[in-house]
Amino acid sequence: MKLLQLKPKLAAVFLYRQKVEFYFKNGKQPITLTIPESALSDLEVKNKKELEELIKAFITDNKIVETEFVLLLTDEVSLLKDISIETSTDFSKEKSEFLESVPFEYFRYRTYQFPKLSRIIAVNRDFYETLIAIFEQLGLSILSVSPLSALSFWATGIAVDSKLVRVIFKKVVLLKQNDLLFEEKASTFRPQQENFWVKNKRLVGMLGVFGLLLALLGVVLVAQFKPTAQKVVTVTAEIPAVQLPPPSGKLPATLVASPSAEFLATLSAQVLNGSHVAGQADAVKKQLLDIGVKNVETGNSAVTNTNRTLVIYQKSLPQTVLEKILEAVGKVTAKPSAQQTDSASFDIVITTGSAK
Description:
Number of helices: 10
Number of strands: 15
Structural class: alpha/beta
CATH class of the largest domain: Alpha Beta
Radius of gyration: 29 Å
CATH architecture of the largest domain: 2-Layer Sandwich
Number of domains: 2
Strand content: 15-25%
Shape: elongated
Largest sheet: 5 strands, mixed
Helix content: 25-40%
Distance between the termini: 72 Å
Order of helices and strands: EEEEEHEEHEEHEHHHHHEHEEHEE
């Protein structure tokens, strides 16, 4: 006798900033898992082991077995940027600036097309990948990972309730098409690496000039001190003056002992307000101007209401300069963190978080 094989149950899981909600197709009441800040804070996994044990215990205690899940990312755990198809003049630049402002070290993004705009959605990988790994360890499967903001039938302000969940269960095929892991599977943002010799053309030129001068000086010294039976003749040579190009802010720390006013004046900086604190970007700009950074632009970050202040800087920026920048920013915001990049429109990009 052939045994009847039952289909797995279907459930929708909604990820919030500090909780996870489970809705089941069989009519079972939704259940909620609250996540403490010791395990997850500011959308970053702080204690992976604690988070894993918490989720495993929750699934075991609630007897969740033989279930397939669709994972929905709410606006609380995703960052988005809308770029108008009609008015945007440089889509690539706007997209790059948004991705540079995302305050996560490892994240995944995808661009979704709507009738009049392109929507870029970025998500911290640690959170949802940890959740997926735990589900798979327990024999549960994930059908799709979809941001709510990517779904055409959902809009900001629509409540997450049983009515919305019934629509979602009817749209599983659409969810798979809008899967964050589909299409742009390897789109974890990584700055483009540049060839060292191309990137440091001025430095290479300066080193060449120094080498030429040292060789000429060596010839002069040999000619002056070489013993001879004849009358000693002092040979002098006038070393031609060489006009060196001005520093571009790209010299390595070994050639810059301390930041001079001339060096700081060559830097370009962008300050983006990532908090709800009015005038915070201007306050940081004033601190940068006070230490000698002359070229400073301000604006609002696509990422708002973040507690973390992030300073993204060119990898070749001297350590002494970086420390001076962090000290200046720290006078306005909570202690900033720093992250290197090899590709940016500015020498320094600062996204402000909570006030000091």
